[in-house]
Amino acid sequence: MKRHLSLNEIIQIHNYKAQTMVVKTFRFNPFQVNTYVLYDETKEAVIIDPGDYVISEDQQLADFIDKEQLQVKYVINTHPHVDHIAGNRFCKSHFNCKILMHENGLPIYKKAHVYAVVFGFDFEDAPDADQFLKDGDTVHFGNQELKVLYTPGHADGSISLYDQANQMVFVGDALFAGSIGRTDLPTGSQTLLLQSIKDKIMVLPDDTVVFCGHEISTTIGHEKLYNSFINN
Predict the structure, then answer these.
(1) How far from 69 is each of 31, 39, 62, 66, 95, CA to CA, in Å?
(2) d(CA 106, CA 67)
(3) What is the pLDDT of residues 197-225, one digit of tens each?
(4) CA separation for the pair 106, 78 (Å, rounded)
(5) pTM of the complete model
(6) Any idea of the CA torsion for 104, 107, 108, 110, to the nearest 10 degrees?
């Protein structure tokens, strides 16, 4: 019988081994973005939200990819904020991979270098996206698949990525352990965000592991019980 991880065990995860996939977590840049590398026995991989910002972070990511002998197929941006796309240019050029995102995030994405100044980032123009994802799409890599859930509210173009087989979801900045994403930035809306969380995320099974864009991971069941934003 499969043993489900306790919340305390989930909090400690940096190398999470699900039934058929490994999730490696890096925390990059001054905003401590969780950058996730997902891969399986085929060695085909995706990178979710490459936050690598300085050369040492680029090297850390590249060294891990090289050590594990991975072939990066895609970079997937959960949303277009600069701290989550900081490594797009390096990853696209170094790993020769495609960048995937939701088209509704394009206006913010194309102005990332402008927003970067506000947050003290030294940031070049972001490279063009290679493919746009929409709600209900499925991203395939190795023997894995991620279902795209459109979850706006933190920013236009925000998506979550649901892996039903391995009982996990990558939510970007939509949902946090005990909290939700901020909604005071351009295109943010708390009403829309709460609706996205209710309709797309909270309907997932309680034992689904929630990998957030910052800080610790959690589970759907834990947030149903303890997240006051959802329970109000």
Answers:
(1) 28, 11, 10, 5, 12
(2) 34
(3) 999 999 999 999 999 999 999 999 999 99
(4) 12
(5) 0.92
(6) 120
